[in-house]
Design a protein that fits this description.
With 417 residues, the chain is α/β, with parallel strands linked by helices. It folds into two domains: 95 residues; 312 residues, Alkaline Phosphatase, subunit A (3-Layer(aba) Sandwich). The protein has ten helices and seven strands. The N and C termini lie far apart (55 Å).
Length: 417
């Protein structure tokens, strides 16, 4: 079995069943949702993205200008860093939601699993999908991993890269009968059993490096099997109808990111999931804007032309993020609150600019059912500025009964209610 056959097989498995669970819980109020968005290559330095004054009356910089109408709903952090900041600057999103020491993961109770997957263990019990992972088409400076998500074993969790495939997964199979779906699951299990057997034979005859690659593929199989189990449990429950048309094939740049945002909102609105992470692409967006590649823009070396291009890039990303916030605010829940009122949304990068992977650009917004409050531009104290403290604060606000996450040493009280 060659590598191409393996990858094609995995893709087919991932596309078929919905990730389902036993039954919808009955609720008198809307549930709380979590969204984590990470983008590569950071932002423009100096005061082009980060405001120059702290507090709720912070100034809207050039890079944040499209977010001006949401200013009162934002928290931007001036001084937040991972404890382990010696990572390669082109590998920053690999540790973004785990805060792990990517070179040697030790210490910390949850030093391997990403915070979204930890949240999914609680928030995803009564949804079709425990969590959804969306990803870019390639590395794009984000580093290792298949999405922003990592499981308990420190293995990458697969993510959807194509809006059409994600739409079909969320809202497809409308013409498939229950009996046909059972046969599909049965066939997938049979294929997977044979596939695993052949892969284990192959594993005996490859190099250590190839064994590591196969181990990553086996991780994908474990997630597929988990999805099949959920699919069997919800096999009699039809998928919801989408309040949007099927995306066009081949979308790139702004259009691709926008439709991914629309699908994220639709998944939350229909309660298909309550936890979403998105490793957002950048290369196609830069190409659409007729800008240089991400690397020279990020490593501008003080060249004014590249700095101006970086600001344009920041503005385009802020415009897209503003669009997502607007969509969340526009969706009304059954109690007349908005999706924004019941969501905690984080948006940021694992690098600031150049090779600085400290003092990261991170925004928190959404009201999280009254568990989170906007604080404007916040300067954190040096002893409480760990990125893991932010994730712990959000996890506790979402109802997880945990006292620590990775190497956290406290909570960020500025955003707690």
């Amino acid at each position: 079995m060659n590598r191409r056959d393996f990858l094609q097989g995995s893709g087919a498995f991932l596309a078929l069943p919905t990730l389902e669970t036993f039954a919808r819980e009955k609720r008198s109020t809307p549930p709380l949702r979590l969204m984590f968005i990470g983008f590569p290559w950071g932002v423009t330095g100096k005061n082009n993205w980060f405001p120059s004054s702290t507090g709720k009356n912070f100034d809207i910089t050039k890079g944040l200008k499209p977010l001006a109408k949401h200013k009162n709903d934002l928290t931007i952090f001036k001084n937040i860093s991972p404890l382990h900041n010696a990572h390669h600057p082109h590998n920053t999103l690999a540790y973004y939601l785990t805060c792990m020491n990517f070179r040697k993961s030790n210490g910390g109770i949850y030093d391997l699993i990403s915070c979204d997957q930890l949240a999914a263990e609680k928030l995803g019990v009564n949804t079709r999908y425990s969590s959804l992972q969306l990803s870019s088409l390639g590395n794009e400076g984000a580093g290792a991993g298949l999405s922003l998500a990592w499981d308990k074993l420190g293995k990458p969790v697969p993510g959807y890269t194509d809006p059409v495939a994600l739409f079909n997964e969320l809202f497809g199979d409308g013409k498939v009968t229950v009996e046909q779906r059972r046969e599909m699951i049965k066939k997938e299990r049979s294929i997977m059993d044979a596939f695993r057997y052949q892969s284990r034979i192959l594993e005996r005859n490859v190099s250590k490096s190839d064994k590591d690659k196969l181990d990553e593929y086996f991780t994908s199989i474990r997630h597929i099997e988990k999805g099949l189990t959920k699919s069997e449990q919800w096999i009699d429950t039809p998928k919801p109808k989408a309040d949007m048309t099927k995306p066009k094939k081949g979308l790139q740049g702004k259009a691709q990111i926008k439709v991914m945002y629309d699908l994220m909102v639709a998944a939350l609105q229909t309660d298909l999931t309550r936890v979403i992470s998105y490793r957002q692409p950048l290369n196609a967006l830069l190409k659409e804007l007729s800008l240089s590649n991400a690397h020279p823009i990020n490593h501008h070396g003080g060249k004014q032309e590249l700095i101006e291009q970086s600001i344009i890039k920041d503005q385009a990303q802020s415009e897209l993020f503003s669009y997502l916030i607007e969509r969340l605010k526009s969706i009304k829940e059954f109690d007349n609150s908005s999706l924004f009122d019941n969501t905690i949304l984080t948006y940021g990068s694992g690098v600031r600019s150049g090779h600085m992977n400290i003092k990261l650009p991170i925004i928190v917004t959404g009201k999280g059912k009254g568990k989170i409050k906007p604080a404007g531009y916040v300067e954190l104290k040096e002893d409480k500025n760990r990125l893991s403290n932010l994730w712990l604060t959000i996890l506790q606000s979402a109802g997880l009964e945990i006292d620590s996450f990775s190497h956290s040493n406290g909570l960020i009280d500025e955003i707690r209610v």
